[in-house]
């Protein structure tokens, strides 16, 4: 399965590609309970699927400091290690527990520029089966306005499937 994944490309619309990615992720993670393994696999599979992704990864709610995010599994250039709730796009998504889509990160108040090549961003809250916020999933793109409603729906569905239901 993993080898086949690494040598494939998915055709179709963005929504169709998210649906295929969701099935592939579920197949690879079947029977794997470890949270770190699940997060690393989601990150790698999505980063390998979508060309508009530049930085892809999780910021985890720190159990020691529950109002702070700490970087988790990611693919991309060096990310900031810690983000306070309410700061930047990740902190806004963590505080509001709502997905935040930003077409132009320069125009977002308090945006944290880990890499100046990031132009637009989507951050999706990640909730476990008890409804607890455990992380946010952050994707940055080098293209402005790279993320649309299909990215939001596709990512929300995958993260729900993997972390709230799986
Ligand atoms: N830009 C994010 C910070 C994380 S990085 O881009 C990897 C933000 O404002 O939350």
The proportion of residues in beta strands is 25-35%
Please summarize the sheet with the most strands. 6 strands, antiparallel
Strand order of the largest sheet: 3-2-1-6-5-4
Q: First CA to last CA: what distance?
A: 19 Å
The count of strands amounts to: 6
Report the mean per-residue pLDDT as an integer: 94
Rg, nearest Å: 15 Å
Poorly predicted sequence stretches spanning 5 or more consecutive residues: none
- CATH class designation: Alpha Beta
Structural class label = alpha+beta
**CATH overall fold name:** Beta-Lactamase
User: In the CATH hierarchy, what is the architecture at level 2?
Assistant: 2-Layer Sandwich
User: CATH superfamily name?
Assistant: GAF domain
Fraction of helical residues: 25-40%
Q: Given the structure, what is the number of helices?
A: 5
H/E element sequence: HHHEEEHEEEH
Shape: globular
Total discrete domains: 1
Q: Give the cofactors and ligands.
A: methionine sulfoxide
Tell me what you see in this structure.
By secondary structure, the chain is α+β, with helices and mostly antiparallel strands. It has one domain (14-164): 2-Layer Sandwich (Beta-Lactamase), CATH 3.30.450. 37% of the residues lie in helices and 25% in strands. The protein has five helices and six strands; from the N terminus they run H-H-H-E-E-E-H-E-E-E-H. It has a six-stranded antiparallel β-sheet with strand order 3-2-1-6-5-4, sandwiched between helices. A hairpin with a 2-residue loop joins strand 1 and strand 2 (65-75). Helix 2 packs antiparallel against helix 3 (35-49). The mean pLDDT is 94. It binds methionine sulfoxide (SME). Methionine sulfoxide is lined by residues 55, 79-80, 83, 88-90, 111-112, 114, 118, 121, 138, 140.
């Amino acid at each position: 399965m993993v080898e086949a994944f690494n040598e494939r490309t998915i055709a179709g619309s963005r929504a169709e590609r998210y649906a295929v990615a969701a099935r592939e992720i579920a197949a690879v993670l079947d029977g794997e309970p470890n949270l770190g393994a699940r997060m690393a696999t989601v990150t790698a599979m999505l980063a390998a699927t979508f060309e508009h992704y530049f930085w892809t990864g999780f910021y985890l709610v720190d159990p020691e400091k529950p109002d702070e995010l700490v970087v988790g599994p990611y693919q991309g250039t060096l990310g900031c290690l810690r983000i306070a709730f309410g700061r930047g796009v990740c902190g806004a998504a963590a505080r509001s527990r709502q997905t935040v889509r930003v077409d132009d990160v320069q125009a977002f108040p308090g945006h944290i520029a880990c890499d100046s090549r990031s132009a637009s961003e989507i951050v999706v809250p990640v909730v476990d089966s008890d409804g607890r916020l455990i992380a946010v999933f952050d994707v940055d793109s080098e293209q402005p306005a790279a993320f649309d409603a299909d990215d939001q729906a596709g990512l929300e569905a995958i993260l729900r499937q993997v972390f709230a239901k799986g």
